[in-house]
Amino acid sequence: MILYEYPFNERIRTYLRLEHLFRRLGALVSRDDAIDHHHALTTLFEIVDIGARADLKSDVMKDLERQKNIVNGFRGNPAISESVLDAFVGQLDQCFDELNSMSGKAGQSLTENDWLMGIRSRVGIPGGTFEFDLPAYYAWQHRDVSSRRADLTRWVNTLGAFAESIHLLLKLLRDTGSAQKVLAAGGQFQQTLPQGRTFQLLRLRIDPALGLIPEISCNRLIVSVRLMRHEADERLHASHDDATFELTLCT
C-alpha cells in the first residue's frame, strides 16, 4: 500500500516536511560515498532554512506541552497502562527540556559556521560547488569516510532535539486516527467533517496495483479526494472507475 499524508494546517505541513528531511538526512549520512554526503549537507541546509522561522521552536514546545496535558488526562483509565503513560510523559519532558535549553532558532549554531555557510551560499547556484569555487569543500569530500561522517554527525546532532520532538509529536498525532475503508464512486470521494472537531492530518492508503494517484484537498468542513491516472501522454487524467482506499483522520 502507498501512504499519502495531507495536513490540515501550516504547522503540521512544516512538521511533515521536517520529518521527511530528517529521514533523508539519516539515510544519506549512513552511506559512504562523497556524493551522498554532499546531498546530506544540502538536506541539512534545507532543514536550517525551515528552522529559521521565528515561531518554529515556540510551536514545537507548545505542542509538546499540549500533548503532555492530553496524555496526563488518561491517568486513572484502567484500560491504559500507567507505565506507558509515564514513558510518554518522560519523552515529552525530555524533548521540551532539550529545546528549552537551546539558545536561538533551530540550526543557529550551524549558521555561525562560516565554512558551512560558504557552501550553503553556493549550493543554490547550478554547479556552484565545483572544485575551483570551493577548494576547501572539494578537499573535504576527499577525506576518508569516517572523518566526513564524524563531521556530519556533529552538525546533525545540533538539530537532534528538533528531530526527536517532531518525530514524537507526529507519532502521537497519527495514533489518534482510526482507519476506515471508503469507496470513491466514479473516482470521486467527499466526506463532510463533524462540527466541533478539529482535524490536523489526513492519511490515505491505496493499493499501488490500481495505478491511481489521489489529489487531496481538505479544510475544517470537508474532505475531497479525486483519483487520477498517469497516462501515456505523461499527464494526469481523472479516473472514472470505482475504487476503494483506506482513510484515516487524525486529531
Features:
251 residues; globular; 49% helix; YacF-like; 2 domains; alpha+beta; four-stranded antiparallel β-sheet
How would you concisely characterize the structure shown here?
With about 250 residues, this protein is of the alpha+beta class.
Strand and helix layout:
Blueprint lengths: L1 E6 L2 H20 L4 H18 L4 H17 L9 H20 L6 H4 L2 H10 L11 H7 L3 H13 L2 H15 L5 E5 L3 E5 L8 E6 L6 E6 L3 E9 L5 E3 L4 E8 L1
Antiparallel strand pairs: 1-4, 2-8, 3-6, 4-8, 5-6, 6-7
Helix pairs in contact: 1-2, 1-9, 2-8, 3-4, 3-9, 4-9
Explain how this protein is built.
With 251 residues, the protein is α+β, with helices and mostly antiparallel strands. It has 2 domains: 9-172, YacF-like; 177-250, YacF-like domains (YacF-like), CATH 2.60.440. It is built from 9 helices and 8 strands. It has helices at residues 10-29, 34-51, 56-72, 82-101, 108-111, 114-123, 135-141, 145-157, 160-174, and strands at residues 2-7, 180-184, 188-192, 201-206, 213-218, 222-230, 236-238, 243-250. The strands form 2 sheets. It has a 4-stranded antiparallel sheet. The radius of gyration is 22 Å and the shape is globular.
